[in-house]
Design goal:
The chain is of the alpha+beta class and 314 residues long. The chain folds into 2 domains: 133 residues; 165 residues, C8orf32 fold, CATH 3.10.620. Helices cover 18% and strands 38% of the residues. The chain is built from 6 helices and 21 strands. The strands form 7 sheets. Strands 1, 2, 4, 7 and 20 form a 5-stranded antiparallel β-sheet that branches. It has a 4-stranded antiparallel β-sheet with strand order 5-6-3-19, with no helix packed on it. Helix 2 packs across helix 5, helix 3 packs antiparallel against helix 5 and helix 4 packs across helix 5. The longest helix has 15 residues. The protein is globular and about 65 Å long.
Length: 314
């Protein structure tokens, strides 16, 4: 996969860029059935996304998974004719800073959380239990606090102070909460899976979001991999964003990343344990900004962006 971002213009608190997503699947067994799903970025309140072009060695079609409504590209062939497949998607994106707790946005009336969404964002996910150890930890760190927002901040602070951003060894990067509790290290997936498990155990709806980071201080660079973050719900305030792993890397922004997301990101999908259905075939994606495929092939990832004009500070 190649992800190329081209920054064009940036008003204060926003970034305008092109994002070039290229996927190569190697070692596809010829003559065999192959199905490939690719995440599809979409617009929401904090980013405007336009697909400039979408091309591939197999026709790309759009579908949508049912749990969170993420849009997805898929391609399929009953008998693969070549051992290497290429796909190329170019986006034009405007990303806005998201601030949920500042006084300036206090008057914004949030949409109500539906009963279905509340149940969904309080349930356990694969590798994200809400009972046992994470629940015990949450009970301990929120002791004496009665307001959900105060409890969420206590959980945020616990993850921030206890976890270490460290991708050495094995076990990290799966969002395995019990691993995170034991190892006390990992990447953004592990940080936010632990936060989500602890928050849900306290009756605070929380959800997982994933996309890619944009280097804040560069006009052009390759991106090493995905980035993920989280939201939690507070009645009367709505969804509150957090990015604990980014706060860990930039401790001077510890308070900022409780309640805010900067412009240096693009979101591709939401949620875990997604069902990618096509006809009668169902595949599962635990973490959903990386493509999923059914074949013996191997995907080659790469991420890159390039600036068209000087950036303004967000």
């Amino acid at each position: 996969m190649l992800f190329a971002l081209t920054l064009r213009a940036s008003a204060q608190n926003s970034r305008h860029f092109t994002f070039h997503y290229t996927l190569t699947v190697k070692n596809v067994p010829t003559g065999k059935k192959v199905r490939i799903w690719l995440p599809l970025a979409q617009s929401d309140a904090y980013q405007e996304v336009r697909v400039v072009s979408a091309n591939g060695d197999l026709p790309l079609k759009k579908t949508r998974e049912s749990k969170y409504g993420n849009q997805i590209y898929y391609a399929e062939a009953a008998r693969a004719a070549q051992s290497e497949l290429h796909f190329d998607i170019e986006y034009d994106v405007v990303r806005h800073e998201r601030i949920a707790l500042a006084d300036a946005v206090a008057a914004v009336i949030p949409a109500a959380l539906t009963a279905k969404a509340r149940r969904q964002d309080l349930e356990p996910d694969t590798l994200v239990p809400i009972a046992g150890l994470p629940a015990d930890l949450a009970m301990k760190v929120t002791q004496g606090k009665t307001q959900p927002l105060d409890k969420a901040r206590a959980i945020y602070d616990y993850v921030f102070t206890t976890m270490r951003y460290d991708k050495t060894g094995t076990g990290w990067g799966r969002g395995d909460v019990l691993y995170a509790c034991d190892a006390k290290k990992g990447n953004c997936t592990d940080f936010h899976s632990l936060f989500i498990a602890m928050a849900r155990s306290q009756g605070i709806p929380a959800r997982f979001e994933i996309g890619f980071p944009l280097p804040a201080d560069k006009h052009s660079a390759e991106i090493a991999g995905y980035h993920c973050w989280s939201d939690f719900w507070i009645d009367g305030k709505g969804w509150i964003p957090v990015d604990i792993s980014e706060a860990w890397k930039h401790p001077e922004k510890r308070d900022y990343f409780f309640g805010s997301h900067d412009v240096n990101r693009v979101q591709f999908s939401m949620g875990r344990d997604l069902r990618l259905a096509l006809h009668r075939t169902v595949s599962r994606s635990t973490i959903s900004s990386i493509p999923t495929w059914k074949s013996m092939g191997k995907s080659i990832p790469m991420f890159h962006w390039h600036s068209l004009s000087p950036m303004r500070a967000a």
